[in-house]
Specification:
about 200 residues, mainly alpha, about 75% helix
Length: about 200
């Protein structure tokens, strides 16, 4: 799932950039203003998307994130991040990837734990593993994702599921799109790092 959502994130982000750059022929300060108004309007309904989202990530890791909200927040965060960056706002890719991964894991973990509570980990463990998977699928750096998530937890038991999830996510995302979220930006500027 994280591989598919990673691919979706990459596509929506650059679709948004194209839309803001090519369709809206307005000065950059008006683009940023329009982007801010749209994000503010979204945040009235879903305030969890504002900022880095660490509060929501902590809720997901502790198993407190409502699964109905988690599935919605995945797509709202993709939209909000894409609008922010497309309209010329400042921001990154890493924290939104962690946020989306935590929401994917919280949603998936809720159902798996509901069906097989005696055989599965808590939804928070799934959120943690999916955070690594989302980062690996988006930036195509599975070892970085594994090390970062392991450093956050220091849990040896999470290494194997984390490695499997990050690897599958990266492979699936790279099958759908040859470029990562970073290399695609370079390619769009005619900078080829792959031959």
């Amino acid at each position: 799932t994280t591989g598919l959502i990673s691919y979706l994130f990459i596509k929506v982000l650059y679709l948004s950039e194209d839309l803001w750059d090519n369709k809206f022929k307005i000065p950059p300060y008006l683009k940023a203003t329009a982007g801010g108004v749209i994000i503010g309007s979204i945040a009235i309904v879903y305030p969890e998307i504002m900022g880095l989202g660490y509060e929501s990530i902590n809720l997901a890791l502790n198993g407190n994130e409502m699964w109905e909200l988690a599935i919605i927040l995945i797509f709202v965060k993709i939209l909000a991040t894409s609008i922010t960056l497309g309209s010329g706002g400042s921001g990154g890719i890493f924290a939104p990837s962690l946020f989306m991964g935590a929401m994917i894991g919280a949603f998936f973990g809720h159902f798996v734990h509901l069906l097989f509570p005696e055989f599965t980990a808590s939804p928070g463990a799934y959120a943690l593993v999916a955070m690594g998977g989302m980062v690996a699928g988006t930036i195509r750096a599975p070892i970085t994702a594994i090390i970062i998530v392991f450093e956050l937890t220091k849990e040896n038991a999470i290494i194997l599921p984390l490695m499997i999830t990050c690897t599958i996510s990266m492979i699936l995302s790279s099958k759908l799109s040859r470029e990562s979220i970073y290399t695609l930006k370079l390619l769009r500027r005619n900078i080829k790092i792959k031959e």
